[in-house]
Amino acid sequence: MSMKKVIILEFAPTADEIWNLDHNDIDGYANYDVEKGLVSILDTAHDAKPRPEILAVYAGGKATNVARVIDRLLDEKSNVKIELVTFLPPPQGIFCKLQPVKLNDVEIMPSTPSGMYVQALQILDLVNVRPRFEIIDELQGPTAIQATRRCIEMIIKGTGTSLNFSPRIIWTPKTVHAVLQKLEKLVSNVDMVVLAGAPPIWKPVDNESITPHDFYAEILNLLPPQCDVSVDVRGYYLHKCLFSKKLPTFIFMNKNEFLEASESWKKLNKGNFFGTIIVHNKDGCWVWDKDTPNTDDLFNGSIFYPSPKVEKVYSTIGAGDAMHAGFLKEWVSSENTEDRLSRSVIYSQAVSAVSVSNERATHGIDAVAVDQIFNKIYNKNY
Ligand SMILES: Nc1ncnc2c1ncn2[C@@H]1O[C@H](COP(=O)(O)OP(=O)(O)OP(=O)(O)O)[C@@H](O)[C@H]1O
Ligand SMILES: [Mg+2]
User: Fold this and answer.
1) Which residue in 95, 171, 182, 187 could disulfide with 200, CB within 3.0 to 4.6 Å?
2) Alpha carbon of 320 to ligand 2 centroid (Å)
3) Residues 140, 148: contact at Cβ < 8 Å?
């Protein structure tokens, strides 16, 4: 079997930071008033300055999350080459004088400070998936472009609450054009492209401009005919993909997102769709293979796979991403056998089960624990 090539596209490179804010009744400056629903950061009554403590920093963005989980599941013997491609702004000011520097044998490209921070975090988080950085000059401009982001979560200790700052990525129509041009070259010889999360936003300049809603559909239309596509995107971004010239091969969504798209399923021409739809929630997942949801009774015609039972649920954040990653890992690394789809679905559910049932969620996924759950279910049913 020849080496398969998969690329995961990250348009929203992120440094995710979790900070602890101390709450102390006498000296504390952070508080949460449950009755009024008010969060106060600076408690003026005590004149204390905020002194947050950093708990964790990691590379984020929805596509990066998927790549990070696949990385834990792949072994070095795997017959697939998986790349996480991240689009970054060029350096500015004194940063233009920098040369690429190597970290773990991967080059960090000169970019903005945030762009370089994200690269370092991605490199340190990935072993089997290869990070690749594309510096796009048009990601810098006179207007307020936001090409990378830092998502900051502040946990107010002991109060069970947190504040989350997650800016959107903002581009211009010029950026979009430049990124699509770069993509056209990148995708010419790949076997699968993975799209996850909402794309950046921008203001179209005239009727000719590509809108944010069209962006993923535009990418689909750049792909060679034999290239598979796996998407975990919602709303209009998905709707446009369902009516583009090239359709996605795999569609992942949670049950709410699925119900939200009911109009799209009605409009979709059954005869044109040759992909697989995988809808999930905490109870399990529903799979339509080369078929679309029935218009009257949406779940009719699907095959249901129950979630593996877990003893304790710690965090469901990123469970859907873990599932998507698990599916992709199993699908791309297995032969085209009759049970390939059901194997991949069961494996995906084993990965999400491990994700929800450990304290570190998607960061605590371990291939051995996944295999144990997978083997139990698979051997019982096949
Ligand atoms: N409370 C739970 N108990 C057991 N398993 C769960 C629970 N929540 C999620 N899972 C597992 O994770 C899978 C995906 O979960 P879910 O449908 O909630 O993802 P999601 O809403 O897309 O999450 P995200 O977008 O944050 O990654 C489920 O099919 C199930 O296997
Ligand atoms: Mg999801």
Assistant:
1) 171
2) 4
3) no
Ligand 1 near 349 CB (within 6 A): yes
Query: Rounded distance, CA 98 to CA 196, Å?
Result: 32
Nearest CA to ligand 1 atom 4: 282
132 strand-pairing partners = 85
Report which bound ligand comes closest to the CA of 317.
Answer: 1
The bridge status of strand 161-165 relative to strand 101-103 is: unpaired
Distance 349 CA to ligand 1 centre (A): 9
Which atom in ligand 1 lies closest to the alpha carbon of residue 310? 4
Which residue in this structure is represented by tokens 């991403």?
Answer: 321
Nearest CA to ligand 1 atom 14: 320
The confidence score (pLDDT) of residue 45 equals 66
Q: Which of 146, 138, 144, 142 is nearest to 180 (CA)?
A: 138
Task: Say if ligand 1 is within 6 A of residue 256 CB.
Answer: no
Contacts 24+ apart (CB under 8 A), 165-170: 168/200, 168/201, 169/11, 169/12, 169/200, 169/201, 170/144, 170/145, 170/146, 170/200, 170/201, 170/202
Question: Which pLDDT tens digit goes with each residue over 219-267?
Answer: 999 999 999 999 999 999 999 999 999 999 999 999 999 999 988 888 8
160-183 pLDDT, tens digit each = 788 899 999 999 999 999 999 999
Size of the chain, expressed as the number of residues it contains: 382
Return the ligand 1 atom nearest residue 348 CA. Answer: 31
What residues in the chain have per-residue pLDDT under 50?
Answer: none
Task: Tell how strand 161-165 and strand 31-33 pair up.
Answer: unpaired
Give the per-residue pLDDT at 291.
85
Domains belonging to the chain, first-starting first, are 4-13+61-146+168-381 (3.40.1190.20)
Residue nearest atom 18 in ligand 1 by C-alpha distance = 281
* pLDDT score for 238: 94
Regarding pTM above 0.85, the answer is yes
Is residue 124 in contact with ligand 1, taking CB distance under 6 Å? no
Q: State the closest ligand 1 atom to the C-alpha of 352, by its place in the atom list counted from 1.
A: 12
Q: Scanning the structure block, which residue is given the tokens 């970290």? A: 103
Q: Residue 47: what pLDDT? A: 67
